[in-house]
Amino acid sequence: MKLWLFNRKGPSGFSASSTAEEVTDGIDGSGLTAIVTGATSGIGTETARVLALRGVHVVMGVRDIAAGKDVKETIVKEIPSAKVDAMELDLSSLASVRNFASEYNIQHHQLNILINNAGIMGTPFMLSKDNIELQFATNHLGHFLLTNLLLDTMKKTARKSGGEGRIINVSSEGHRLAYHEGIRFDKINDPSGYNGFRAYSQSKLANILHANELARRLKEDGVDITANSVHPGAIATNIIRHNSLFPLPGIAGKCLLKNVQQGTATTCYVALHPQVKGKSGFYFSDSKVAQPSSQALNVEVARKLWDFSMNLINKCSENKSMH
Predict the structure, then answer these.
(1) Of the candidates 48, 45, 57, 54, which has an alpha carbon nearest to the alpha carbon of residue 22?
(2) Would you give the DSSP letter of residue 3?
(3) CA 100, CA 157: separation in Å to the nearest integer?
(4) pLDDT averaged per 10 residues in sequence order, the chain, 323 residues
(5) What domain of life (predicted)?
(6) Looking at beta carbons, which pairs linking 306-312 to residues 24 or more positions away fall under 8 Å?
(7) Contact status, residue 154 vs residue 225, Cβ threshold 8 Å
(8) CB atoms < 10 A from the CB of 195, how many?
């Protein structure tokens, strides 16, 4: 049993039930290089697999390098021609992000696609190694720094290849359920009033605001790189499995939850499809442009978040150098 809406095709010719293989059918990605963060489970693994299937050289940024090698082996077994590498990356640690970026920039001189996919969800209040609330640190700040550190390589690649670079932040419809003030700039590390799900939603709102402000800056610089955010769809993966926040039992759950192949479709569509060429600063769902919350479209808040994130990173660097 499938819901009729689930199969209804949008303007792209794809629907909520389209898979990543379907939305990239016939697309040749050979000659392109992509980074996928959080590629050892769920939609991250499937994103890496489908991009590799289309000929893209995929570099997986993974916290657990042994798990990363297992994923690589699995992909290469299925697709012998696949070009896949695994590199260590812990998004909750700014030092790890810096190490990954400098290693990448030394080893690889090309980057066409950056998929900021890694994420944690609904954790109890915890601080990262840099003393920042863990979900904000991992889901937003780590990716914010990673993107900034890889931007020069992406700009050089776009100039040299004459092709468009694409940056994709994997967000969520959950962004609508952030704290009522949206981003809690003054209380980012405040355990009082902390709510695991709202903190997750806040980080997903940050993903959209980051992509939008980045898109604006790239346009201003006249660079041929786009930045967009995507909602994969509620997916039956580990991130949800350990969360009582999604009480969707039985058939209702099966109808409303996408499988991993469907959940990866929008990311792969925005990463590779020619229909998306030149589109920047948009939010995509079910392989088409969608409308995020009014908070997500607030240009002032997007600018404020950019400056706030820069200041947080600089503060962390100063603290580290003092010790």
Answers:
(1) 54
(2) -
(3) 18
(4) 53 88 97 97 95 98 97 98 98 98 96 97 95 98 98 97 97 94 96 95 98 98 97 65 45 61 95 97 96 97 98 88 64
(5) Eukaryota
(6) 306/210, 306/213, 308/183, 308/185, 309/140, 309/141, 309/144, 309/145, 309/210, 312/132, 312/141, 312/188
(7) yes
(8) 14
Phi, psi of 128 (to 5 degrees): -75, 180
Active-site residue flag, 200? no
Q: Which candidate in 104, 179, 194, 200 is catalytic?
A: 194
The number of angstroms, rounded, from the C-alpha of 303 to the middle of its chain's C-alpha atoms is 20
Q: 242-277: buried (b, 16+ CB within 10 Å) or exposed (e) per residue?
A: eeeebeeeeeeeeeebbebbbbbbbbbbbbbbeebe
| Closest to 285 measured CA to CA, from 198, 172, 181 | 172
C-alpha pair distances (Å), 320 with each of 185, 305, 316: 22, 22, 6
Q: Specify the DSSP element, H or E, that contains 57.
A: strand 57-62
Residue 221 φ/ψ, nearest 5 degrees: -80, -5
Query: Per the structure block, which two tokens stand in for 113?
Result: 């696609």
The Cα 192–Cα 118 span in angstroms is 26
State whether residue 103 is helix, strand or coil.
Answer: helix
CB 39 within 8 A of CB 119: no
Give every CB contact of residue 169 below 8 A, 6+ residues apart in sequence: 116, 143, 207, 208, 210, 211, 227, 228, 229, 230
